[in-house]
Amino acid sequence: MDSGKQLTGTLVLAVFTAVLGSLQYGYSLGVINAPQKVIERHYGRSLGVVPDDDLASNRIVLGNTTEPEEVHPSVVMYWSLSVAIFSVGGIFSSFLVGFVADFRGRIKGMLVVNVLAIAAGLLMGLAKMGKAHIMVLSGRAVMGFYCGLSSGLVPMYVGEISPVAYRGALGTLHQLAIVTGILLSQVIGLDFLLGNDDYWPLLLGLSGAPAILQTLLLPLCPESPRYLYIKQGKEQEACKSLKRFKGEYDTSKDIAEMKAEKDELMKERPVTILGLLRSSAHRQQLFVALMMHLSQQFSGINAIFYYSTAIFYKAGVTQPVYATIGVGVINLVFTMVSVAMVDRAGRRTLTLIGLAGMCLCAIAMTVGLVYLHTYSWMSIVSMAAIFLFVSFFEIGPGPIPWFIVAELFSQGPRPAAIALAGCCNWTSNFIVGMFFPYVEVLLGNYVFILFAGFLSIFTLFTYFRVPETKGKTFEEIAAVFQRKRKGSPAGASVTTELEQLKSSAEA
């Protein structure tokens, strides 16, 4: 698409509408944490292990240092399932992203999957009307299934409709909406708002609210021109869509670019997930895409959110929940910094700065934790390390993996690549969430040294293997990987994307 055109109102509306799905994803990620103790007591009553009158007598007020009674093992099991099943749903549905996106289109795909989000919101919102643990567990499973689809559909649609000059900034909005959703859930989940015995089902049920707004707005948004032309062969509709996104202009250049890509696709068999895994032509792109998603989850960012409240408590913060919300604010602010910088500094540069900075912060955090009780000022080191860690994450490693997959692959293998990257992200998210508590017990105050080790590996990998994609077309990016695969010098001629696609089809 012509990068010389300004952002139009239609393009802004389409991107805003799409990232409402990302807002919902972020809200669903964060909403379950704040009211944990409240929901556990309702689980106990539903399971018959906590008397009804205990719900009133055991209310927990934020800032109160009174220790709650020991939680029944069956409650712990159902609570753990409620948290973990969200990721499990995402793992399975991520494989369906390509099918949903291509079967009815990007817009209709997002419309259809909103049914899942609304159903999940109703299940959780009506939890008090049935068995609380079953209702929440079912709602979280369905919501996870929705978010697995949404986290693939949104970056795909935004990447396909974005002008090259704005592709990075608009792609980063996916992550911005996620962190906005997390922060929103943290604030609304405060005890004096909705995170209490009376309103916690409403708090969880609001997870489906963005889907209602998105459902109303999606019919106003044009379909992806690339989908219309390349997948559907509808040139006139693709031209209309281009003009709606960019205003009145000569669409011939964009149509010619899409025609060349379509011609190449016509000469290959469809690239399935299995075909992409076997393809030698796309192996390096896929390896880079998966490693970037691994770096996002194994950086330790989720562990920070799990551990930050405890660190703030040890540091003497009387109400650590507000300090944790402060982390959420930092999260939001530096994602906006990334939006402003990603098309100037570049993807590779910001990812390198972010990973290296996080590595140093993880080391500083370890030092702070180890000497927290020896030197009082180490609490300041720990708190500063947390804030800086989150800041570096949102500069690059947080937002960039989500949209760079769409930049690394052309139309043919893109849905399969996004599905594999999404599955990788959700699986590693599940692994960190499930096993971090056990690793924390094993390593104690040295737990973040493990993440520092991961981060150093990811930093080196990014430096040596990840190319810069800023301002490059799909064919130019493919040529970079082809050069590396062939080991040819920079000035040597490279095979075209067509040849790569042919070799992919033969794999």
UniProtKB/TrEMBL annotation:
Residues 493-507 have a biased composition (Polar residues). One of its GO terms (cellular component) is brush border. This is Major facilitator superfamily (MFS) profile domain-containing protein. SUPFAM superfamilies: MFS general substrate transporter. Residues 487-507 are annotated as: Disordered. The chain crosses the membrane at residues 7-27, 76-99, 111-129, 141-158, 170-193, 199-221, 286-309, 321-342, 349-371, 377-395, 416-439, 445-464. It is a multi-pass membrane protein. It is found in: Membrane. InterPro entries: GLUT, MFS_dom, MFS_sugar_transport-like, MFS_trans_sf, Sugar/inositol_transpt, Sugar_transporter_CS. GO terms for molecular function: D-glucose transmembrane transporter activity. Coiled coil: none annotated. The keyword Membrane applies. It comes from Alosa alosa (allis shad). Belongs to the major facilitator superfamily. Sugar transporter (TC 2.A.1.1) family. Residues 14-470 form the Major facilitator superfamily (MFS) profile domain. Its main location: membrane. Keywords: Membrane, Transmembrane, Transmembrane helix, Transport.
